[in-house]
Amino acid sequence: MVELFEDNVKLFDRHSSKGNQLKWEKDGIWYKADYTGYEGFAEYVISQLLRKSTLRKDEFVIYELEQVRYKRQIFNGAKSDDFLKEDWQIVTLQRLYKTKYNRNLMEDVWHIPETMDRLKFVVEQVEKLTKLENFGEYLSKLITIDAFFLNEDRHMHNIAVLMNGEGKFMLCPFFDQGAGLMSDTSLDYPIGVDPIIMMDEVKAKTICSNFEDALETAEKIYGYNLKFTFTKKDVTKIIDDVDIYSDEVKKRVEMIIFQQMRKYQYLFSEH
């Protein structure tokens, strides 16, 4: 457990449809408290499973579980190393677009009728503004992660690139999966309701509201860029090793992942 104080609190321009989650930074470590349910558990499980994928280790952020004492309260949550070096900063796609055109990227994207055209528009704008190559491949990997793990909070405030003081850009490691695995138990996905029934209610936010349509569109344009290699035994081991969340939450998360493994069998490759 770590004790944190007001001077450790951090605020960002990365807005969430789920509200304002408490976040802190201390000694090069970032901490996030659970806000609507078990976000920290979702961050941890997803990042551990991404270790068993075709992603390079520098392509995603690893989260560990942590309990935080703050203002006489104890929060469950997650922590991660600060991946920003020297004068690099996170720039959301929303901020990038707004700075250049003084327009709202989310609104412009969702005014485009076809999902395929929406995705192409986002990629073309980012590559134009940053000079980065292969952003389509990058975004297709992110869409794959979000579709599989049901991350319902991936909008233009929550996709980012990295920029340094000289105005040069880099791809940002994949981070912020806390809205995945139906972690919002306070309102949208209460404990006690069959998670299999509720899974159909989870909506995407990136280029359309349907995860399958978003993934199919990304694959049609940019191909298959991410495969998973974990097994059911791997999932159970990662979940069973956790002791700060209830057995009910752990069983639910396991059930969700197993269901997604059946649904997306083609995303799995041999070790």
Give keywords:
271 residues, alpha+beta, Phosphatidylinositol 3-kinase Catalytic Subunit, Chain A, Domain 5, 2 domains, five-stranded mixed sheet, three-stranded antiparallel sheet
Description:
The protein has 271 residues and is α+β, with helices and mostly antiparallel strands. It has 2 domains: 2-81, Phosphorylase Kinase, domain 1 (2-Layer Sandwich), CATH 3.30.200; 89-231 and 247-267, Phosphatidylinositol 3-kinase Catalytic Subunit, Chain A, Domain 5. The chain contains 9 helices and 8 strands. The chain has helices spanning 39-50, 93-101, 105-110, 115-130, 135-149, 195-198, 211-222, 232-240, 247-263, and strands spanning 2-3, 23-26, 29-33, 64-70, 73-81, 89-92, 160-163, 169-171. The strands form 2 sheets. A 5-stranded mixed beta sheet has the order 1-4-5-3-2, with helices on one face. The protein has a 3-stranded antiparallel beta sheet with strand order 6-7-8. Helix 4 crosses helix 7 (211-222), helix 5 runs antiparallel to helix 7 (211-222) and helix 8 runs antiparallel to helix 9. It is globular.
